[in-house]
Amino acid sequence: MSNHMIPKLTKDELLQVDAWWRANNYLTVGQIYLKDNPLLQRPLEADDIKPRLLGHWGTSPGLAFIYAHLNRLIKHTDQDVIYITGPGHGGPAIVSASYLEGTYTECFPAVTKDAQGLTKLFRQFSAPGGIPSHASVTTPGSIHEGGELGYALSHAFGAAFDNPDLLVAAVVGDGEAETGPLEGSWKSISFLNPEHDGAVLPILHLNGGKIASPTVLSRKDPEEVESYFRGYGYEPIWVEGNELPWMHEKFSDALNYAYSRIAEIQQEARSGNWDGTRPVWPMIILRTPKGWTGPHLVDGKVYEGTWRAHQVPLSGVREDADHLALLENWLRSYHPEELFNADGTITELVAANNPEGNKRISGNPHANGGLLTKDLRLRDLSEYATEVTDETRASFKQESTRTLGAIMRDIYEDNPDNFRLFCPDETNSNRLGAVFEVTDRAFMERTNLVDEKLSSNGRVMEVLSEHNSHGWLDGYNLTGRHGLFASYEAFGMVSASMTMQAGKWFQEANHLPWRAAVPSLNILLSSTCWRNDHNGFSHQAPELLNVVLNMNKSVGRIYLPVDANTLAVTAEKVFSDRNKVNLVVQDKQPQMQYLSMEEAKEHVTRGYGIWDWAGTEGLGDDKPNLVIATAGDVVTMEAVAAAEIVKTVMPDLKIRFVNVVNLMALHRPKDHPLGMSDSEFTRMFTDDVDVLFAFHGYPGAVHQLVHGRPGTDRFHARGFKEEGTTTTPFDMVVRNEVDRYHLVIDILNNSDYVPTNGIKLYHWAEKQLARHHEYIVEHLEDLPEVRDWTLGTFEAPDFERPNEDAYIPRKPLPER
């Protein structure tokens, strides 16, 4: 941390800070209301007002007040600071700040630093063809879209991890403080190490109101509030009031004290004599009126300091002359003639409070993390290869996610300050525990002799909160570092809205040339719906797949590796790309191994492929009687087993077996950049042969993906259909009719021709299902031939084999 001795606020500095704050408030009100006459060089008229008044005034003056004082701190200390606004609907204040600092014009040259630029700035706010009302991806200096409340602190701490010289000022609105994710994120100081991490300064902004009612913390006794935060391990510093200039002096003193305490904590931790004890970090509780400096009374009702100031305090200014006069008086109360020159440029008094260059909050490279991003050092995949040959294919099982654990272990070792795994207490459970060979779990609270792999210097982030894990990684990514969020599949939905927001951020960032691309958000879902048989129905849910499936085509990616080698290749891919949401779904339980490393590289690179060995070998370009397609590990094993059963009994039935590992490849190329070409689609699936598709998630996703392809009615998707309970592994697939026996029946129902013994095989499969149900109830485990199956072990049922030419149409087969 930079020089931490900050002098008291001088009279000149007070004037500068106050002028900057007033200028920001003026610009904020202008963005909400004005489309013309930006400097009030003539009396305000109704035609100067926007036809639709949108935005949030209530929190904005408080956000600008904090920002103004952070600027002074930076000027004295040269400290790197980024600013996270939990109440992100105060976006006009943050846009105004970047405009005053000059960064906005650097990013958007059309919004010039003069009267014409002011007009553009005002007209574009929350307007068609303009910018949103929140502090979003279009706002220089922002790494946090605060429209969805709850994630300010988790993003702030994620930004601070492994960023020892960074201070993250995180404003938590008192409405946001009521949300579950924010409530849990106060615990983040239990994971922040002052030796090698940066600092987070939480600023709880108590302005008293939400949209239409008071907030909980604003109405609590201050002693209760103080006890609450002291219990978490913070030292609260109170600043309360609305009188000026006293509030400037009071807040400046509070900020100086907080900064000096942070510097002392870090200096002690980095001295070499620190014992690893969690420090008591400072936080500021700022209580100011909601809508501070805005209209106090409107139509006889109090607005300033109440929930009425939340959005647009004067909503009838185009029609109501009294409201228009109030608006003009409000704008002139900031004395714009002291803040802006006649040509619209800011005065020297305002500019004096701006830091310079990259030290500007809105221009700090940590808030444009792609500028600081370094590629991960990744070892050659041959070091992680599982040996698979033609003879051993699908003949042995292993826990594939252990390979990913080994890859991440080496990434940790080779990238000691640039990579972290974030996981809700499930690292070992998801078979990723190899990371503990090189680092512990991060933990700043007390430890004891029972604890394992737990220390203040650990860098594996385990906290029993999907929101914290996801939010930490978001902040880590957006400041230019790499990572993985791993969760049980069903509980990926706990933080699904965060995943969706990350996708929207990347999508918008792709259209902003000044936003440098950052490492992708990588999510591993393991302990999947098909293998959470022991936990029961609550743990059986593949919904996140559909969330990512519906993201913009520039962002969303879904990978369904089927074994250790395809997972390794997928990992290399997702850890290397940028501005994507990469969803990788693979179970942690022992599973069949199908492809050699070289085969896996080709398969994952293409995204799909024909497995001749699983279908009818030597089929070549001959048209099959049926195409079996799969996407997902468990369903692929069931489909391979089903194909083996059918080929053994009916060797002349021509089956093409297609596996898809990159789900987006099923799209048409005009719908997705990874979509396979029409000719490739025909090569895989033909144009007219029925396709039986065994899918990891909800079957409807397959129909969505192949929409517009030739003869989509011929695709018969089987997948999870919300049938589950506490049961055996095989019973999970049986309940959803995507097991080998149901698939055999489907093959017989959907092949264009079926040998005579097809009807006998059909009834045999039905009997196997009946046997299964009886067996698991009696023995509490699956049938031996299911548990012990490997490719090549199936023996044909004891009924007459078909004659070579004895084919019958499929019509006589009973339909399921």
From TrEMBL:
Q: Which cofactor does it need?
A: thiamine diphosphate
Q: Which GO molecular-function terms appear in the entry?
A: aldehyde-lyase activity; magnesium ion binding
Domain Xylulose 5-phosphate/Fructose 6-phosphate phosphoketolase C-terminal, first and last residues per copy:
588-790
From its record, what is one biological process in GO terms? carbohydrate metabolic process
UniProt KW keywords: Lyase, Thiamine pyrophosphate
Question: InterPro entries per the record?
Answer: THDP-binding (IPR029061), Transketo_C/PFOR_II (IPR009014), Xul5P/Fru6P_PKetolase (IPR005593), Xul5P/Fru6P_PKetolase_C (IPR018969), Xul5P/Fru6P_PKetolase_CS (IPR019790), Xul5P/Fru6P_PKetolase_N (IPR018970), Xul5P/Fru6P_PKetolase_ThDP_BS (IPR019789)
Q: Does the keyword Transcription regulation apply?
A: no
Q: Can you give the residue ranges of the Xylulose 5-phosphate/Fructose 6-phosphate phosphoketolase N-terminal domain? A: 9-371
State the family it belongs to. Belongs to the XFP family.
Protein name according to UniProt: Phosphoketolase family protein
